[in-house]
Amino acid sequence: MEDRSSEFHQRLGKLAELKSLGVEPYPNGFKPDHTCADVQKKFGEATKEALTATPERVSIAGRVMALRDFGKASFIHVQDRSGRLQAYVKKDVLSTDDFAVFGKCDVGDIIGICGPVFRTRTNELTVEAREFKLLCKGLNPLPEKWHGLKDVEARYRQRYLDLMVNPEVKDVFVKRADAVRFIRDFLVGRDYVEVETPMLHPVAGGAAAKPFTTHHNALDMELYMRIAPELYLKRLLVAGFERVFEINRNFRNEGTSTQHNPEFTMLEFYQAYATFEDLMDLTEEMISSLVFRVKGSMKMNYQGTPLDFTPPWTRISVKEAVLKFSNAGEDVFVDKDAALSFAKGLGLHVPEGLSHGKVIIEIFEKVAEPMFIQPTFVTHYPIEVSPLARKNAEDQSVVDRFELLVAGREIANAFSELNDPLDQKERFLKQIEEKAHGDLEAHPMDEDYVKALEYGMPPAAGEGIGIDRLVMLLTDSPSIRDVILFPLLRR
């Protein structure tokens, strides 16, 4: 077995031979009139006799994925965007020049073939090459074995090879594209307008996260890669766009894990004259319909765990969840010292300067969040962890907010929006105090956003859905890296 280096040089030699014959190894202009799937669809039911009686010429182009050379004849498998198809190359059928070029062909090369369709002795649908064209000479050999966990790092680093040789990986990203298209059509069909908002922000707002910073030389100002589009989308509510959404990238300067990548795709949408309860209903309809579209059923398995997306989904408050899944008492929710003591008893490292509400969420994430396997709306989060959300009318220590949890992880986050500019400014000031006490993810002041609210924003609700995590569920993928084409990796 030759190593990669020797085969690379062998292919370089073939490239030089082709050039010496006057053959352009990287031509342009070949136009296939069929995909492999087109040929399968058009002739898949035709018998051997019918194909022989009325031969029809096709032309296909793609990458050589297998080559069985019998000297004066060869069988090859050609792969294009639609799939694979067998082709037959025979010396006494091709021109002398074409067969000489074919002789320099390797697995991995991109070729074009023209000829009639027939069936082999094993009844496999095959294109007989009457014309052959080398379209791209590959210099690196394709990997012979490219599957299994042992290759997972290489698969992420060379995703182009992963997609090329593993059809099931390509299928993940086709399903991802279909899911995004479904969501877009779902919202447009409900009178939402798709918009694009800035990626570079003067204030890193809209979420509790650490931003990436950059510098604009011409304006001599520090900017942040956006951590969320929320505050710009809500400016559009002020402007009169009553239903808006955006599907685009967010960037957060945080660690990587099976659920986190520094850049990821979010759907955010906002609806005037709606409440967080309205968005629970809409989310339930949208995601259950999407699951049915992809899976053909409301029921599916994720990593061996059965999930049922049949509405209605469970709804439970943060407080109810903590009380249900731990031995915490009511005092945890009314006394910060009691909450700190209980958190430390769970082994949590909670800084003394952390707000009461954030301590409660630390407890919730430890004892309750992993327990929500089936689709569940967890509601009424502490006001301290929701600086942009509307206070609950009955209990002003919490806000009208929900998170959708599936398989123990957050898929969506939504709330009735705070549109009181005075309250919003007070919340921002409170966040500044918390940052001074060590909370590095506290929300900064955004004076321009407050000014926008002062012009009047209609009552509204908004939501963010993590597209990557949603696709993980739909494709039974264990890691977020499996659903991002080019995930960030350490050098």
Q: What number of structural domains do the residues give?
A: 2
Low-confidence stretches: none
Q: How are the strands ordered across the major sheet? A: 7-11-12-19-18-17-16-15
Total beta-strand segments: 19
Query: Taking Cα atoms only, what radius of gyration do you get, to the nearest Å?
Result: 29 Å
Number of helices: 15
Query: CATH topology of the largest domain, which one?
Result: BirA Bifunctional Protein, domain 2
Q: State the distance separating the first and last CA atoms.
A: 30 Å
Q: Tell me, what's the shape?
A: elongated
CATH first level of the largest domain: which class? Alpha Beta
The major pleated sheet works out as:
8 strands, mixed
The proportion of strand residues reads 15-25%
Characterization of this structure:
By secondary structure, the chain is an alpha+beta fold. The protein has two domains: 4-136, Beta Barrel (OB fold (Dihydrolipoamide Acetyltransferase, E2P)), CATH 2.40.50.140; 164-326 and 368-482, Bira Bifunctional Protein, Domain 2 (BirA Bifunctional Protein, domain 2, 2-Layer Sandwich). It is built from 15 helices and 19 strands. The strands form four sheets. Strands 7-11-12-19-18-17-16-15 form an eight-stranded mixed beta sheet, with helices on both faces. It has a five-stranded mixed beta barrel with strand order 1-2-3-5-4. Strands 8-10-9 form a three-stranded antiparallel beta sheet, with no helix packed on it. Strand 4 (110-119) and strand 5 (125-128) form a beta hairpin. Helix 7 crosses helix 15, helix 10 (318-325) packs across helix 12 and helix 11 (336-345) packs parallel to helix 12. It starts with a helix and ends in a 17-residue tail after the last helix.
